Amino acid sequence: MTMKLQPVTSNRTSLKQAGFSILEGLIIVAVISVLAGVVIPSVYTEFEKARLSSCLSELGGMQAVAFDLGDGRYIPTPDEFWNEGYPSSTEGEYYYIVDAEDHNKGHGNDLDNCDEDNPGASINGRDCLDLKFVVLCDHDHGDLGLYCYGVDGDPPTTVKPGETDPGYKGWLTENNNDGTEKKGKNPKSKSK
Fold first, then answer.
1. How far is CA 47 from CA 54, 141, 142, in A?
2. Are 115 and 108 in contact (CB under 8 A)?
3. What is the pLDDT of residues 59-82, one digit of tens each?
């Protein structure tokens, strides 16, 4: 019996058939870049919207704590607000600023542009708002807002780019009446 020899065949695919050409690789990179350019900004925008919503919610809670601590009779000082309202707060970017901390202090240099010694009178011709306190975040929310704030009982709002800024963030650079610097905190839990 004679055996015929079969030609040896390889199951390997040639390199040319298995790999990508440079052109194909460049096309894949271009497609991935375009997809990333579309997806990443939209994900970032949604992240910023969530952060903005969180800030507005936090500021609303801070307003409620200020009124609760004051029991409708007075406005708590920053120390009372943080120590009693948020005893487990940590250093952060939320601020509670009281208008002059005393209705007789800050004459001519008030957060709310009101001269409490002469009710109804404005300072330097600016609108007299007669605010008691302002809560604000020192976060930059990009295109969604420069920062968020809440005054007395009004719902928290956002200062959007191009809108008139009431200037509350500028007060963060001003010292308290006792000469100490304003300290921001992150509210961790409300008092019970």
1. 11, 10, 11
2. yes
3. 999 999 998 998 777 888 888 899
